[in-house]
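@channel anyone free to eyeball this complex?
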Amino acid sequence: MFKKILVPIDGSETSWRALEEAQLLAEKFDGELHIINVIQPYNNAALLAVPLDQATITQGNSELEKIGDKVLTIAKEKVAGFKGKVDFALEVGHPSERIISFAKKDNCDSIVIGSRGLSGIAEFFLGSVSSKVSQYATVPVLIVK
Amino acid sequence: MLKKILVPVDGSPTALNALNLAMAIGAKFDSEIIALHINIPYDYTKLPPRKPKTEAEAEEMARKPKNPTPLDAAQKVAAVAGYGKIVFRQMVDTNPADKIVEAVEQSDIDMVVMGNRGMGVWAGLLMGSVSAKVSQTVECPVIIVK
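replying in thread with the prediction:
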């Protein structure tokens, strides 16, 4: 248990707290951390206003990837003091779906996730990533506030 | 850091999985585990068995092992693991989620470990499950176990 912990982060305050908690557990249980950031294309309302041609999509995606890379760089700094193995990955797609399939593919035995991410109050109406992950993942999910 | 872990149990296998995970974590952090069972009065999903019609049937029913109560089952699991720092509590209330949240606030709980789906399969579908409510409401970290 807690040998391979998946930590999905999005750069929000709660996701950093989740990372801290995961680090603590990984140290105690001698496990490794798998940190992923999922970027979601076409999430932008602005994208709906412009014609969706391939050029716009690629431009939007590369923009998002830059942000994702930055989030992972901050994460790298945060886990600098961690002794065990750490993996980083950038995934593209629907967040909760990507997180669950990544956990399966990578054989993670637990997921540590922040309760509320960047979308904040919008999740109140749309259903949050963390509640979807906790309902559909096959491994224990730790929800950090 | 993790001084007190709350494990709500309802007699379902996932709740016992949650207890096992809580004990695994508790062993590392040397924490106290509180196993809490909330008894729902007038729970029609747990009707008593029907009365036996014949003598033979009565004998048959007496021979069948009775289902252990949720706390008995939890006690058994804790005894198998040999975990000492554990207390068992029982409450009666019609709303388990509210009681769990209340218990977390009252007893300064640092973490809740619970199963994602307990006894109420249909109620869970219709009214929103206890684990969803608890994980959204409480202030401390929550582990949802399958």
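from a first look: Chain B has a mean pLDDT of 85.
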